[in-house]
Amino acid sequence: MATRKAAQKSLSLAPVLDLNEANTLHGKLMALRGSNLVIDASAVERVGALCVQVLLAGAKSWEEDKHSFAFSKVSDAFTKTTQLIGVNIDHLMAKEI
Amino acid sequence: MDMNEIKEIFFQECEEQLAELESGLLRLNDGDRDPETVNAVFRAVHSIKGGAGAFALDDLVSFAHVFETTLDCVRSNKLEPTQDVLKVMLKSADVLADLTNVARDGGSVDQARSAQLIRELEALAKGEAPPAAEAPAPKAAAPKAASAPKPAPVAAAAAPNDEGFVPVAFSFDDFGGEEEAMIEHPAYEVVFKPKSELYTKGNEATLLLRDLSRLGEMSIHCNMDSLPPLDQMDPEAAYFSWKVSIRTDKGEDAIRSVFEFAEWDCELDVIAADAGEGADGETEELPMQPVPFDLSALDEEPHAPLGVVEEEEQIAAAQEAVTAAQTASNVVQMAANTSRAAAAEKGAAAAAAAQNNAQQASAAGQTIRVDLDRVDRLINLVGELVINQAMLSQSVIENDSNGVSSINMGLEELQQLTREIQDSVMAIRAQPVKPVFQRMARTVREIADITGKSVRLVTEGENTEVDKTVIDKLAEPLTHMIRNAVDHGLEMPEKRLAAGKSAEGTVKLTAKHRSGRIVIELSDDGAGINREKVRQKAIDNDLIAADANLSDEEIDNLIFHAGFSTADKVSDLSGRGVGMDVVKRSIQALGGRINISSKPGQGSVFTMSLPLTLAVLDGMVVTVAGQTLVVPLTAIVETLQPDAAAIHSFGATQRLISIRNSFCPLVDVGRILNFRATQANPVEGVALLVESEGGGQRALMVDAIQGQRQVVIKSLEANYTHVPGIAAATILGDGRVALILDVDAVVAASRGQPLNLETSLAAAG
């Protein structure tokens, strides 16, 4: 089935995803385009709205590229903040890993 | 800090608490039924008790305990604060003050009195009528459960526990019937659209939303429609916006205050939604999040470089904790709640009351305690600065022939600045007369008790400010006068009723500012001065000749004479014949004046006018026989250049000046002070018309007027010795010392009385 074996890349998010990290994260994501991506958010202790924006923009772009964009692991803090600010990431959770 | 210092702070706080206690009780006496007033009173006694316990001041503790127990009955609506109950309470406040004083300064209290009051307080606490009076039986309010849908907090008094302590009414709103309460909280729609600046300035939308979530139950919808694809986005720009539905009892202000520090960097709309309306369609997919619990993990997150919001949030959390602790420990500290808490409480009546009080608390402003010595040192230094500045500008003027240099401009600015600094520093010492007035309330109560008269003290303008020195020295003369007003001025109730007045006499004490002075008026609605009696007494005491022709005003003023008393018998309170004489001298010593006006059958009014400060004085600088003198401006009515035709000789040495068809004695200041041996020619000088004691006018002869200026008073007594006829000294711009004239002493000397020590104006050093 998997004739097109796209390269799968992974990205581990920094513990603090604040204003300063938004640019870095954006840069990292831009560099990872064109392949399926698995994001490890288990180390995240704090996440700001800007980084959530970057991640969601990434998800949008990946979707346009027809590549998969999924979170493998998420920390409690990450889940709670996204919940708090009304951003639903359930559909981005990797189901079959 | 050693124990004594801590103790001293305790006593200072006691003073404040006692003042709070008394003013609270007086407000209750005037019919104020605000539960917060009762709480304030209770709190005051409770704090004193607590502090006294720490220092093992057992007498104070045991009395405060009984007092507190009775107050608690009032607080829990078991005891109605009737006039009779409050009478006992006011007396108890007096005893509490006495006990505090004794604990601090030593001495003894009237044991019988405090024992009697303890009995009365205990009787009240047990629901019995006060032993002394036929008060209506205190009504025992049945404890009501706080189960009403919207419990009115006052009515929601809970059952007291075995110690008679009752949980505070307001606190229960926060607990019982939580679910019901949740449903009733008003709903708000909040639209929050951050701008990019919000993030670049270090604010964080997530934290703001978290704060918001703490206010109540909320559901949130994040609008991410404007989010571009990754390659087109600016990672630091704001794309998300939020629509939040929140139910909170804290009100719109609390919602807005969450965004307080970000309001310029976001678009914010807060709309009150219909309380009955459910969550709106857009947010349906999102579960309602019981956020406060859910977010516990976030609270522990590391606090790296964060904006103001985080701190703000910590403060809020601390406040919440404090509030909760207070509620739990049943210590009502509503005043400690900040305006933030006040803003949060809206809707229910309790909240409104709390808000008022919190506002009052915040209106009181922040204060620090400063040692008076330090303030005085500062005032002294500023005084020196003023003098130095004057000297500097004078020497510049002298050395600068054309007088328009930039230095002059700079000096003028400096002068303004120093004047402003001086005013501000003086304002530090300025204090409201309230504490003194409050002490008078006690005096009135005690005297009314002893004389068996019924008296109401009405005070006005208690917040009028005046220098602390003046306040400190005001208490004694005022006490004398109040005693006189109640003892001599007011009639016995029967007599008042017979005269068609109410049985209760009124003594009114007012303070106001008038043309740079403080005017204190004490009036009573008593019988007024019995002029016949005064006149007869004066004749008996050889103060006036039997056939002397005196105006009403002159007769009234006789009461200020030393050794004069009209009381038929000498009582404990007044009538020792020193009262009004001492009063007048104390007022004069403060640089003030006192007047009396009396209407038979309608009462008397004593008017005192005092300087606002004893540190500076507006004076007229004059030359007398080559000396420079300063005449206090307040004493001067007018100045005039005498015309030869207006000068008339009178007797051997006296001269009169005719001013607008009346004659006024001419007083040669240089001659009185022995500056010169012979009398000066009035036509060559200037006459200063001054108001002297007793209302008469005198024309003071001086050689020339140099000008008017504000001078810093330097005590002559403290630095040299007392000089008769001279009130104090000052240093002029040229560095020379100028003497400040004691106008009343000079006028008295012109009447033939030798210049003596007693009539001098004591100046603040």
| CATH architecture type of the largest domain in chain B | 2-Layer Sandwich
Principal-axis shape of chain B equals globular
**Terminal Cα span of chain B:** 31 Å
Counting DSSP H or I runs of 4 or more residues, the number of helices of chain B is 25
Strand segment count of chain B: 22
Main sheet summary of chain A:
3 strands, parallel
Order of helices and strands of chain A: EEHEEHEH
The portion of residues assigned to helices of chain A is 25-40%
Overall average pLDDT of chain A: 84
| Termini gap of chain A | 18 Å
Helix content of chain B: 40-55%
Rg estimate of chain A, integer Å? 13 Å
CATH topology of the largest domain in chain B: Heat Shock Protein 90
Please name the two chains that share the biggest interface, counting residues whose Cβ lies under 8 Å from a Cβ on the partner chain. A-B, 35 and 38 residues
CATH class of the largest domain in chain B: Alpha Beta
Number of domains of chain A: 1
Strand order of the largest sheet of chain B: 14-18-19-17-16-15
Protein name (chain A): Chemotaxis protein CheX
Organism (chain A): Rhizobium giardinii
Pfam families (chain A): STAS_2
Domain MlaB-like STAS (chain A): 11-87
